[in-house]
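Consider this today:
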Amino acid sequence: MNTHAHRTWQLDLGANRVGSSAVRFRVWAPRVKQVSVHVFNQEGRDPVRMEPQGQGYFNLTVEGVRVGDRYCYVLDGDKVRPDPVSRFQPEGVHQASAVVDPDTFIWTDHGWTGRSLKDLIIYELHTGTFTQTGTFEAIIPHLKYLKQEVGITAIELMPVAQFPGTRNWGYDGTYLYAPHSTYGGPQGLKTLVNACHAAGLAVILDVVYNHLGPEGNYLADFGPYFTDRYRTPWGDAVNYDGPDSDEVRYFVISNALYWVTEYHIDALRLDAIHGIYDFSASHILRDLAGAVHDQADRLGRQIFVTAESALNDARVITSPEQGGYGLDAQWNDDFHHALRTVLTKERAGYYQDYEGIRHLATAMQDGFVYSGQYSRYHRRRHGNSSKGCAPSRFIVFSQNHDQVGNRAFGDRLSTQVPFEALKVTVAAVLLSPNIPMLFMGEEFGETSPFLYFIDHSDPELVEAVRRGRRAEFASFSWEGEIPDPQDPRTRERSCLHLTGSLDPRRAAMLRWTRQLIELRTTVSSLGIGSDSSEHHVQLHEPDNVLVIHRRGDRGPDALLILSFNGVQASILLQEPVGHWRLRLDSVGGEVEGEGQERPPQEVAIVSKGVTLSIQAYTAAVYLQVA
């Protein structure tokens, strides 16, 4: 169901081909009296005045326009601006847009119907640093490695919408419909998605609907896309509920449909939805998720909407029938924060709210740690209960672009904790009942930093970013000179090292990661949990040990033992009663164990209990013997 004949939905904004030699231009510009379109394919061709349609729209069909032709809009005779719905910005955020025909790409994924939520093992990557080349197509030679040697089932691309310059995390995008030009533009992204589907990998795209970047953002010249009634960390909020907001909502929902339809994207990850303000009767998140799900049904594919949220609000992932927004899953920062405090004992900034192993147990059992109690960091009550939410609604991780790159020096866990502790950490993520996510390079313990970098053209803006970064880090008391975001070397230092042979420890970490994923995908009880009753977390707080009993709908139960203790510990196990056999552990020689004593091969848990001695930083998986 992937040819345009079955698409049913088509983008009706921007520049769209009509027949073989004409293009229909349509733009929403209620703030101006007159709009002209200027096509640059003929010498001396003047701008042509567009026809007002009502509700602030202007429309014009122009003959003799070819694919690739550059064009722009002229507002009220003097403001020359790129198209807000440009499919391609070949020369960057300030220059002309290019006409694109979305139907010229030859897709070969006609049998692809997507991946189910329960099958997702996500690998977050940044296109510009995953390879030295930094393009969409440069990722393709590594897909076999990701699928076969690591075992992931979905890649999640950090935002790719056109941003200023050549290097950026992507959250400064200003043309939401235009895949970044230096990454390879529309052709490159479609080629990557097509190759991923051929390899059996889903593609998740990170999209930013809470703000636009500061450079090249001309939307306010066209219409009231923003409002000063709400303030975000990035300035005025997007206008989702004020006057003329219907068309702003249409612009954003059309963007979501555009990615899943024209680019065959399998899921969207909505950035920082706590920066989306909407007090209308039907929240924009609910409308967007509903539109995407309806389009998925029309296309005959599984397509999901996930989100990053600092709200700890279960409404995000609750069905509309129960008063929620109906998103399929959300990132669980509480899991990450609690895990990091166990590993590193950090207590600055938002980490001050998390109390080590006890809160990690809560996150693994229930989802949110903060479900309405007082937060010292927020200085108020925070969150609501997620106990009724299935574990499959949460995406968990020990690292991601934010939690690495928004540290002053972009340092990864591999440089902060012992190697054996790193293995326990990966086990906690990959054998959780939630959707697991790895950050690029985590699978082999990459030690190079992932830093924040930009490529702005305005010196004052560059300096403002530098000041903002220093202020952001103040609450964490990190000391030292912060790497300059504008320096090209900052991006170069952040590139992943995928080529060449791995040293023994990195090779062992890769083997360990692969073994964990293989166990997750072959043992039913270690897969995703559809109900919180299917797993039970036992907390051995003084010993810094968690024991997770996981049940499945078929096959043996599993017992996961995670010791975050730097020394040997002894714990009393009284449940679950039964006979258990060791299936996998982190101290074996094949994963570069430190010569420690391995866990017992057999454990019999009886009603009076059994004492189990566990070596420092150990992960062990037992399966029940019938």
Observations:
- The chain has three domains: 4-98, 117-331+393-506, 527-625.
- The CA atoms of residues 332 and 396 lie 6 Å apart.
- Residues 1-5 have pLDDT under 50 and may be disordered.
- Residues 504-522 form the longest helix (19 residues).
